[in-house]
Here is the input.
Amino acid sequence: MNIVSSLFDPTVKHPGLKDFDCGLDAINRFARHNLSKQVRQGVCVAYALLDSDDAQRLVGFVTLANHSIELSRLSVLELGSMPRTIPCTRVVMLGVAKSYQQHRLGQQLIKIALQAAQASAVNVGSFGVYLDADANAVGFYQKLGFVLLQGNQSPDPSPMFLSMSSIA
Here is the structure.
């Protein structure tokens, strides 16, 4: 297994895309039916992990988009005086194929996402990174420094946030 990361190119037909299975139906459907389309439309940017030992098979991806969040949703962070609407980067989707899980590829993808968010924030204001964590991913994101905004909402997704100043 030789995993390489790259910006996702929607014009390339990667093996593993049409039958992508990370174990979560919503992410699988997105990968199979919407990932290429939304990247082409400019709705999001995606980064891919590819197995170069297996014909550049798509084994994981993360999508990012510009976003904004109401300051009131960030009240757990005790930010003080700020604008009512806060610009941020949103991690829209993140998935790793089941056969590649347990190899820290999720951490690799979120690291790529955080680096991209930081780079973007240099040119366009962004206070942090927002995401909606699936029930089984809350602990994963907490270990990376994300804070629950409304407590754990399991079985529903739980909103989480990481400020740019917290990204190492």
In short: Strands lie at 3-7, 45-51, 57-70, 85-96, 128-133, 147-148, 158-163.
